[in-house]
Design brief:
The structure holds 2 protein chains of 2 kinds. Chain A is built from 10 helices and 10 strands. Chain A is globular, with a radius of gyration of 19 Å. Chain A has a 6-stranded mixed beta sheet, with helices on both faces. In chain A, strands 2-1-4-5 form a 4-stranded antiparallel beta sheet, with helices on one face. In chain A, α3 packs parallel to α6 and α5 crosses α6. Chain A has 2 domains: about 170 residues, P-loop containing nucleotide triphosphate hydrolases (Rossmann fold); about 80 residues, no CATH class. By secondary structure, chain B is mainly alpha-helical. Chain B has a domain of about 210 residues. Helices cover about 70% and strands about 5% of the residues of chain B. Chain B has a two-stranded antiparallel sheet with strand order 1-6. The longest helix of chain B is centred in the last third of the chain and has 27 residues. Chain B is globular and about 65 Å long. The termini of chain B are far apart. The chains are: A alpha/beta, B mainly alpha. At the A-B interface, α2, α3, α4, α5 and α6 of A face α7, α8, α9 and α10 of B.
């Protein structure tokens, strides 16, 4: 994989609480350009809250999140997205009423400049941009092997396929970082290994950094460069998969303090 | 320490090959469109009575407004009950330009769209902050503010007594007198107006279709279905809603300008809340989120009460006017039957007339495929 020269995403001491319940408590870590970085932790450890803070859905009470040197806290979700952070969700957030192609085209919105009037008459810029977007989207559909489904309405497709569509949509934004929130949740064994393979392909071929939250340890350990473990909103371990798997605190968090 | 979540059996069985069936359906749609266009062009020459031509012209004008509701409600998922206020803005600005300023229709009609669209954009900052029922209630306020303004601002509205509307003049002839050439009438008022209104409807339909298949329409649908995910994908949610409000109001303005120009004279009283609700009913009956749905809904809404009214003459025990003591009158029955029809349609096909009309085609197609 690529040289880990610079830090792409720097999460520095972010804290988030919901009326007294601390979801995140001074979490600090950074993701390097081009790496696969996993965040693990038991249910309720604050993993999804972390993603929501990065992508601008929640605003943490303290701390900072910098991306390529720019502060992200306080930006609206679509601004964060346009800076180059794409995201998938734990419960697939695709748009069921639209076709697969339209779902992917949505991700190209940041590359299109045509205004409302231009779109309504569809001449010149608008028409050209739409054609370019269709071509661009084709590539990502092929990469995730959903190109034969482009004209199908997303709502009619199986769960595993929808997850791949969501990943393709994230890729089509041409981001520098993709946040994957439990990419294999609810998948069977075959689908899981297929998805793990897809994530690795994406990372290798496109060179995009990946920040991953996942419960499936086999997959996390197999594809990650580094792993960070959270428990009750605090970071309890950070290192290579092998280091984290041996860490006493991590074992405790998962299996309970009784051991 | 594997904590894999066990898979819930979500999703249906895989359906890999959807593409060919879809292509065939698009072709059936094209045939339907061509047939409808031909029909619309031929209707004025079929010797249909003036009454029914009038109903048709009202339906065409309503379809323009219904497309506006389709943009804001069908595409973007925002309930707006302020549609009649934006129609009024279009109507008054066109009347002022067309009568006081003596501008031709190709000035006052786009101007009606522009002024109403701007008004929609001005209201949008308030509207994007509230959702669902709160938005519905918030937009009702527009109707009442409008009603007050029209009744007070008498220099423009003519007060409760009403005012003249802008005339549609083509080659110096007012379309309300029909169209003349060399001393003979080429087209009656109804034929001429049918074509004029139909031409405007076609333009608005094309604009709406382009919205639907461009980045604009995709953003609207994304905001409608999941606004959180839309933002994360990079769609500016607030901006999308604002644009949708502006476009919807602009279409309302065109519809209002056309409506009043066709009637020739209008009063502040007609821009009621009920008018806004009519438009919502049209798109719900026709089918939310589709262009065909808006047009079908508008025609259904305008035509069916008249049809029931006309049929009631042949039913026993129905009196034609209210003078006769206490009996069921035709207009009364018409309302009942009409309401009943809406309920039955929505129970039978909640996605509206648009889907209902496609059912027989789909049935034939399935039979054909089954036979093979």
């Amino acid at each position: 994989m690529a040289e880990h020269a610079t830090d792409l995403l720097e999460v520095d001491g972010i804290s988030l609480s919901f009326s007294g319940v601390k979801a995140l408590d001074g979490v600090t870590f950074s993701v390097r350009e081009g790496e696969v970085f996993a965040v693990i932790g038991p249910n309720g450890a604050g993993k999804s809250s972390l993603f929501n803070c990065i992508s601008g859905v929640y605003r943490p009470q303290a701390g900072s999140v910098r991306f390529g040197g720019d502060e992200l806290i306080g930006l609206k979700p679509h601004r964060v997205a346009r800076k180059g952070i794409a995201r998938t969700f734990q419960n697939v957030e695709v748009f069921p009423a639209m076709t697969v192609q339209e779902n992917l085209l949505l991700a190209r919105d940041g590359f299109m400049k045509a205004g409302p009037l231009s779109c309504m008459v569809r001449i010149g810029r608008s028409a050209r941009e739409e054609r370019e977007a269709v071509v661009a989207v084709q590539r990502y559909a092929e990469m995730l092997r959903i190109d034969h489904l482009l004209s199908a309405p997303v709502g009619s497709l199986p769960h595993g396929t929808q997850k791949r569509i969501e990943l393709a949509r994230a890729l089509a934004m041409e981001p520098r970082l993709i946040l994957l929130d439990e990419p294999v949740a609810g998948m069977n064994h075959d689908e899981t290994s297929e998805m793990g393979e897809a994530i690795r392909t994406v990372n290798r071929e496109v060179g995009v950094a990946i920040l991953l939250v996942e419960h499936d340890m086999t997959m996390v350990m197999g594809i990650s460069d580094r792993v960070c473990a959270l428990d009750f909103g605090q970071r309890i371990a950070l290192g290579t998969p092998a280091e984290v798997a041996r860490d006493a605190l991590v074992v405790n968090a998962y299996l309970g303090g009784a051991l | 320490m594997t904590t894999t979540v066990s898979a819930p059996p979500t999703g249906s069985a895989p359906q890999p090959e959807v593409a060919p069936a879809r292509r065939r359906r698009v072709r059936a749609g094209t045939i339907g469109l061509v047939a409808w266009l031909l029909g619309m062009v031929l209707v004025p020459w079929l010797g249909i009575s003036d009454l029914w031509m009038g109903v048709g012209i009202f339906a065409i004008i309503a379809a323009v407004g219904a497309l506006g509701i389709q943009v804001i409600m069908g595409f973007t998922g925002q309930i707006s009950l302020g549609h009649s206020a934006f129609m009024a803005i279009g109507a008054y600005s066109s009347a002022w330009l067309g009568v006081e300023q003596e501008q031709p229709f190709w000035v006052w009609l786009p101007a009606a769209a522009l002024v109403a669209g701007l008004a929609g954009a001005l209201f949008a900052p308030i509207a994007v902050r509230i959702r669902g029922l709160y938005l519905a209630v918030g937009t009702i306020a527009l109707v009442f503010i409008g009603a007050y303004v029209w009744e007070t601002w008498t220099t423009v509205s003519g007060g409760a007594g009403g005012r003249l509307a802008a005339p549609v003049e083509i080659n110096g002839q007012d379309l309300l007198d029909g169209y003349w050439s060399g001393g003979t009438q080429v087209m009656t008022l109804f034929q001429a107006w049918w074509y004029f209104a139909f031409a405007v409807l076609l333009v608005v339909m094309v604009l709406t279709w382009n919205i639907r298949r461009s980045r604009l329409g995709r953003s609207m649908l994304a905001v409608r279905d999941r606004d959180l995910a839309a933002g994360v994908v990079g769609i500016p949610v607030t901006q999308t809603k604002t644009v949708a409000f502006a476009i919807s109001s602009a279409f309302a303005g065109v519809s209002g300008a056309l409506l009043t120009a066709y009637m020739g004279y209008f009063t502040p009283g007609q821009w009621s809340l009920m008018l806004s609700i009519d438009f919502i009913a049209m798109v719900v009956i026709g089918g939310l989120g589709t262009i065909t749905g808006a047009v079908l809904g508008a025609f259904f809404f305008r035509a069916v009460p008249e049809v029931v009214n006309w049929l009631s003459a042949y039913l026993p025990g129905i009196s034609q006017d209210a003078k006769v003591d206490g009996g069921v009158t035709a207009p009364l029955l018409s309302q009942f039957v009409y309401g009943l029809l809406i309920v039955v349609i929505l129970i039978f096909e909640p996605r509206g007339l648009n889907q209902l009309c496609r059912k027989p085609f789909r049935w034939i197609q399935q039979r054909r495929e089954g036979a093979r």
